[in-house]
Design goal:
Number of helices: 16
Number of domains: 2
Low-confidence stretches: 1-57
Helix content: 25-40%
Strand order of the largest sheet: 9-8-7-10-11-12-13
CATH class of the largest domain: Alpha Beta
Pathway: Amino-acid biosynthesis; L-serine biosynthesis; L-serine from 3-phospho-D-glycerate: step 1/3
GO molecular function: 2-oxoglutarate reductase activity; NAD binding; phosphoglycerate dehydrogenase activity
CATH architecture of the largest domain: 3-Layer(aba) Sandwich
Radius of gyration: 26 Å
Strand content: 15-25%
Structural class: alpha/beta
Organism: Talaromyces stipitatus (strain ATCC 10500 / CBS 375.48 / QM 6759 / NRRL 1006)
Function: Catalyzes the reversible oxidation of 3-phospho-D-glycerate to 3-phosphonooxypyruvate, the first step of the phosphorylated L-serine biosynthesis pathway. Also catalyzes the reversible oxidation of 2-hydroxyglutarate to 2-oxoglutarate.
Catalytic activity: (2R)-3-phosphoglycerate + NAD(+) = 3-phosphooxypyruvate + NADH + H(+); (R)-2-hydroxyglutarate + NAD(+) = 2-oxoglutarate + NADH + H(+)
Largest sheet: 7 strands, parallel
CATH superfamily of the largest domain: NAD(P)-binding Rossmann-like Domain
Distance between the termini: 25 Å
Mean pLDDT: 88
Bound molecules: nicotinamide-adenine-dinucleotide, (2R)-2-hydroxypentanedioic acid
Length: 479
């Protein structure tokens, strides 16, 4: 993909690709420990309980050769916990509170090895093409739809996220919204703020005994199911996968079945071609008269002009939206028709809760996400572990130990074509390969091998030979 990954760039580039242990076990600035217990021992060739225990006692922490060479760009106000973890490694961390317009993003991404984003930053193929040094992307959120995952994988760029650290926060927000909508609290509160007393019970309801229809019964949907039943609601759900019901919830066979039965409909599906506008005019038509819609998934899932129409026609009695097809890049930005042509119409509707994509925005969730993704990035940069990666095969080896000073870890990301392993092992063949693991996912394979008795010159030679193979996507050597 990039000249920076070519064989012709030995010196400075090698400093990024070749990493070495600085004996982190003695470094106070290294809070991330790669204890053997966190590794997939079953994957490591020749591991026995005894060797595992020994490794756990004396794990050597790999560390990039010159940590100040590792440049990280964190956008969208990534939590302090994540920033601290990365800064403690000695990486150069640049932190911005907002996302960036594409031209500025392209300018910045050219230089960095790691980028951390949330839901707003679009890492398209166009942007990633410019990311000459990028090895890993951290999505400090659940959704990864904002990243071209295939392009990233095809270019050896790993992507990590935090699959469920904010699920509870979203579920709690939705519970709150169900009550707020049922009691028209948004409107009453606005009226009071405008100085108007309007004490009404007309079309205000208890939620007890009402039916909640959950579309997408994954981490968030199933958590919500439990909370809703605790409030006395009946829960039905629709999912493309056959899933175990929590409590007394019931899976229904079609979306239409759900829409015809539910008093409250809530969406918890990922952004996919199949979920684009999955709530359109036809689906609003199928909803019960006077029912409610909640969307805290992705803005592309609801056809908003159709929602406006359904609301004006009185078909739905209210809605809560947390996500939108186009969202402002930072706090203080306007949300109006320049961004989404229907924004002004949406704002005039009765009983509609509009929130600025805050489903996962709690102290608890953001702090947990910062730690989870921060640690995954460190383990990838320092040790090559892809455990938890969303676009590469998951490969891991137990840590090297302090008794293995002349060892190196070879990471070779390559096209998944026949014959590559033979060639790689010919290159590694003069060395003792202590352990090796390889796995593939679609067109990309990831090989990790720990070899012994190597010095710096040998590592440079190995690096050059691996880079010269036609199957190579990216080579990294850590020691
Ligand atoms: N508002 C926020 O701040 C916020 C926070 C977290 C997550 N999210 C969004 O919520 C989405 C769901 O999160 P999750 O953690 O529950 O995801 P998940 O992957 O655990 O669950 C998603 C579920 O949707 C189902 N699904 C996929 N396509 C479907 C379809 N066409 N019809 C019906 N079901 C379908 C899947 O089978 C799965 O069970 C995320 O993808 C993210 O976009 C938003
Ligand atoms: O914090 C964010 O920007 C995204 C939150 C949410 O949509 C997610 O995908 O986790």
């Amino acid at each position: 993909m990039s000249s920076a990954r070519d064989i012709k760039v030995p010196q400075e580039e090698l400093a990024h690709r070749v990493s070495r242990s600085l004996g982190l076990s003695t470094s106070p600035a290294a809070p991330i420990t790669s204890t053997a217990s966190s590794f997939g021992f079953s994957a490591a060739v020749g591991s026995t309980p005894a060797s595992v225990a020994a490794a756990a006692r004396a794990a050597k922490h790999l560390k990039p050769f010159a940590t100040e060479d590792i440049k990280i760009l964190l956008l969208e106000n990534v939590n302090q916990t994540g920033r601290d973890i990365l800064a403690a490694q000695g990486y150069q961390v640049e932190f911005l509170k907002t996302s960036l317009p594409e031209d500025q993003l392209i300018e910045k991404i050219r230089d960095v090895h790691v980028i951390g984003i949330r839901s707003k930053t679009k890492l398209t193929a166009r942007v990633l093409k410019e990311a000459k040094n990028l090895i890993v992307i951290g999505c400090f959120c659940i959704g990864t739809n904002q990243v071209d995952l295939k392009f990233a994988a095809d270019n050896g760029i790993a992507v990590f996220n935090s699959p469920f650290s904010n699920s509870r926060s979203v579920a709690e927000l939705v519970i709150a919204e169900i009550v707020v909508l049922a009691r028209q609290l948004g409107d009453r509160s606005n009226e009071m703020h405008n100085g108007t007393w309007n004490k009404v019970s007309n079309k205000c309801w208890e939620v007890r005994g009402k039916t909640l229809g959950i579309i997408g019964y994954g981490h968030i949907g199933s958590q919500l199911s439990v909370l809703a039943e605790a409030m006395g609601m009946n829960v039905i759900y629709y999912d493309v996968v056959n899933l175990m019901a929590m409590g007394t919830a019931r899976q229904v066979p079609t979306l239409e079945d759900l829409l015809r039965e539910a008093d409250f409909v809530t969406l918890h599906v990922p952004e996919l071609p199949e979920t684009q506008n999955m709530m359109g005019p036809k689906q609003f038509d199928q909803m019960k008269e006077g029912s409610y819609l909640i969307n805290a998934s992705r803005g592309s899932v609801v056809d908003i002009p159709a929602l406006i129409e359904a609301s004006r026609a009185g078909k739905i009695a209210g809605a809560a939206l947390d996500v939108y097809p186009n969202e402002p890049s930072g706090n203080g930005d306007y949300f109006h028709n320049d961004l989404n042509t229907w924004a002004n119409d949406l704002r005039t509707l009765k009983n509609i809760i509009l929130t600025p994509h805050i489903g996962g925005s709690t102290e608890e969730a953001q702090s947990a996400i910062g730690i989870e993704v921060g640690q995954a990035l460190v383990k990838y940069v320092n040790e090559g572990s892809t455990l938890g990666a969303v676009n590469l095969p998951e490969v891991n080896l137990r840590s090297l130990t302090i008794d293995e000073p002349d060892h190196a870890r070879v990471i070779y990301i390559h096209q998944n074509v026949p014959g590559v392993l033979r060639k790689v092992n010919e290159i590694l063949g003069d060395h003792n390969v202590d352990k090796q693991m390889t796995d593939s996912r679609d067109d990309v394979a990831y090989l990790m091998a720990d070899i012994s008795n190597v010095d710096t010159q040998t590592i440079k030679d190995l690096y050059a030979k691996l880079e010269s193979l036609s199957s190579r996507i990216m080579t990294r050597i850590l020691y």
